[in-house]
Structures are given as structure tokens and as C-alpha cells.
Amino acid sequence: METLKPIHISSTKSDLSEKLTSAEMGKLWATYMGNSMGKCILSYYLQHVEDDDIKNLLENALQLSLEILKRIEEVFTKENFPIPQGFTEKDVNLGAPRLFEDQFYVHYLKYVSKAGMSIYNVAVPLVYRKDIRELYLYCMDSTMVLMEQIKDILMNKGFIMKPPVIPIPDKVEFVHQDFLNGFFGHVRPLHALEIAHFYDNIENNLASKALLIGFSQVAKNEKIQDLFERGRELVTVNTESYMQKLHDENLPSPSFRDDLVTTSTFAPFSDKLMLFHKIDMFSMKLRSFGNSVAVNGRNDIALLYTKSLLKNSAFVQEAAKIAIENGWLEQPPRAVDREKLASG
């Protein structure tokens, strides 16, 4: 039995002759940039993978990125939209020595797949043109299939620990005045959503820290190398504070993945690519912190996430300034500058 009744509306409102909206342009541009970067990174990972299951996973992820890039290029070409430069073979050295162990590749794929899904699921309700709608439904569905493959490998190979288990409630209850307490008076235990978001943020940060360790080892520009090292310290402090909240409740947390980085100092990626990657992923963290605050109830946790958000925002700002200084930051599609037109 179908849950939803089909709705048949005859309309010519959505057809391929419609102009792209700002939402469609912006999401297509961001999706292209992210998958352009992913194509380079996954191609390099495939040069140094020994586990057959993980190799198949990387090949699936790469093929998905290539298919998404192809579909977006077709739209851009049809619309006479300039195809972003993104990242090319100049941004990756496939002959560079191994920088990460096989296990890291699986954690990395989960890390970036979550970021991709956050773009796609925001796009789906915002895009209206039929071909763009279908593109994002394809992106979402395919990435969800990939995520299931990632989780299967993580679990079957013992690479990951599930989120903490807590007791099933005995009955329905309503909160009391102390629900928001975090610093004074009776502080209630963490509820399930707070635990889930701590786990999610910890998991993201563990992959982020390992990536920053590797990037800081191979970055050529001293300013960028210093930024990566400070980013690693920031992620470490944030992660340990989230872990402590779980440990205070006698709940376990995942362990660091620092040992999955090799000692190589030979750069497989350009400084431009690595810097964009961290701008992109730290920006995604900001959304994650917002989601975490939205389901939280305790004042101490809200303050913790607010501090994380401010510090991560400062990192993104500094990284963006360095990218701009080097002429690396591409301009997303933008509205008309009417004042400039008037003054011209």
C-alpha cells in the first residue's frame, strides 16, 4: 500500500526552457566545485589502496563524482554558463607516496559523503526545474547508497564503534524547570539527541584532524602549513571537550585516527586544493554546530557549541583570506551590482 496518494497536476510551469534560479545556480556551482576536488583526491587514494573492498568503495565514489560532474557540465553548457575551473590534474600528483592508510579512506568517505548529503538535501526543496530536480534526487539517492556501503565496511572490518547505547524509557515524561540547567543546580543527564550530535561531531572531527595532520606535513606554503597546524589544535580541543561530555555520563566515544597518517612529507595535492578542502569542510562544521544547538537543551552545551562555532568561523575567514591573496578563490554566481551599473 502506498503511503502517499499520487497527485496529477497538468502544468507547463517546469520545463527545460526556464532560466536557472539563483538557488539552482548556487547549488550546481557548489556541487561542481566539491566533486571536482573529490575527483582529484579519490584518484590519488586509488593509487595506494590494498584492500579490495575499500578499493571497490573508492572506485564507486570516484565514478559517482565523475557522473555528477558530467551531468552538471551538460547543464552549464546548455545554459552558456561558464564551467568553473575547479581542480584539475595540476592539483594532484598521482605518483606521490602514500599519505594515509587504507582504513582512513573509509572514514574519509563517510566524512565527505555527509557533507555532500547536506548540500543535496538542502537543494532538493529549493530547485524547481525538472532536470535540476532530477539531478539532485540522483545525487541524494546515489550518495545514500554509497553511505550504506561505507557503513557496511566500517562495521564488518571493525573500523568503527556505534553511537552509545542508553536505556529505553519506562514511560512518557515531561521536562521540569531544571531541563536547561548546565552550570548550576541539578544538571540532568544528556538526552538522546544531544548524545547523537556529540557523536556525530566527534566522528567528523576525528577524520578532520587526521586530514589536517597529513595536510600540515605536506603543505609547501609556510602560512598555509601554520594554518593547518592551528586547525589541528582547534579540532583537538573541540573533540576532547565533546568526548568529555560523553565520558561525564559514563558513555564511550570513538578514538582518534591519527595513527592512520603516514610519515610522508611529499605533497600529493596542491596547496590550493588542500586549503579549499578545509574551507569547505570547516564551513560544513558550522552547519553541524547549528543543528546541534537546535536539538540541545542544556546551557553548558549551547555555550560549548557557540565557542566552537566562533573559533571555526575565524578559521574559515583566515583560510579564505589566504586563498584570496593567492588568487585561488573562484567567484560563485552573484546578483547584479546595480550601483556599479549606475556609476558606469
UniProtKB/TrEMBL annotation:
Origin: domain of life: Bacteria
UniProt-listed InterPro entries: DUF3231 (IPR021617), Ferritin-like (IPR012347)
Gene3D superfamilies to which the protein is assigned, alphabetical: 1.20.1260.10
Name by which UniProt lists this protein: DUF3231 family protein
